[in-house]
Amino acid sequence: MLPPLKALQAFEATARLKSFSKAAEQLFVTQSAISHQVKQLEDFIGQPLLLRQNKSVELTQSGDMLYSVVRDCFVRLNSVTQHLLNQPPVQLKILAQTSIAVEWLAPRLELFKQRYPDLDTLLDMASMAHHADAEQYDMILGTWPAPAGFVSQQLRTEFWYPVCAPAQFQLLTGSEAAELLDYPLYSSETGEDWQLWCQHQQLRSPAALQLRYVNLALLATKAVSCGSGFALSNDFIAGPAVAAGQLIALRQFSYQLPWGQYQLHYKADSVQATAVEQFIQWLYTQVTSR
After folding, report:
1. pTM assigned to the model
2. Vertex 21, ends 283 and 151: CA angle to 5°?
3. Is 161 strand, coil or helix?
4. pLDDT in tens, 223-272
5. Which of 264, 240, 238, 260 lies closest to 251, judged by CA?
6. How many C-beta atoms surround the C-beta of residue 64 within 10 A?
7. How far is Cα 217 from Cα 103, in angstroms, rounded to an integer?
8. What SUPFAM superfamilies does the annotation carry (predicted)?
9. Beta-carbon count within 10 A of 172 CB
């Protein structure tokens, strides 16, 4: 015996948006109607599915189990329906910070297309948050704060570490962090990133570091590939070059850059909420696999 479809729809929207009122807005019904449908589903299942805490809504263990199945069914049903109706693919507009867009996200978009052939993506990038109008995008990836109207979640805990070319690595004579300070240091933060790195490594910073200034961490990473100096980078930026042997990662000297944690910002009440949810699920599989 299957639960009532309307009750499942109300439950899925409430669980996804974590709000009865937002679910009501998206389904064009009243909040009391949503609450009634969810209660009907809970009575059908015989146990609570949602925890109602003031204005927030959280899933119970049973609710989480049901939601994972319902969400997948709705995603598949939507995909098949679009295909049968011969509708043009939904296009997700994504803005990514240059550091994560160039080396990490852009090369992976074909994998997303293979997984969801009925969805298209339009990837744009910016080096600074104020260079783009957030309202034009469904999702934003970067180290920037959340724009108004967006929900945020951290992609993962990101560690920054020195990188250099193999030729530079061969010049190191020991395994001490202090030896790096004898060479040019490329900074995208007017030297503050390296000052914090020295503090984390419990090093007394020399009066005059050999700093080389660039505007982006991606540029600093590219600059050291010529064979001289060190840059502070991370797996989103340097990962492909490290894997290819073009750069050496000194992970033993890693640290967490306070402003270097990547966030995913998205509109939870987007008219393309199902497609956004699909992209988020896919994105996290990519993030966890590095």
Report:
1. 0.69
2. 30
3. strand
4. 999 889 999 999 999 999 999 999 999 999 999 998 999 999 998 777 78
5. 238
6. 12
7. 12
8. Periplasmic binding protein-like II, Winged helix' DNA-binding domain
9. 16
**CA-based R_g, the chain, Å:** 24
Cα 7 from Cα 40, distance rounded (Å): 7
Enter the tokens of residue 43.
């009575």
Query: Residue 209 corresponds to which amino acid?
Result: L
Assess contact for 265 and 22: CB atoms under 8 A: no
Nearest CA-CA partner of 278 in 86, 91, 61: 91
Helix/strand/coil for 275: helix
Q: How many Cβ atoms are within 10 Å of 33's Cβ, its own excluded?
A: 16
Map tokens 């990836």 to a residue: 141
Question: Could you write out the three-class secondary structure of 170-207?
Answer: CCCCCCCHHHHHHCCEEECCCCHHHHHHHHHCCCCCCC
Measure the CA–CA gap between 71 and 12, rounded to whole angstroms: 7
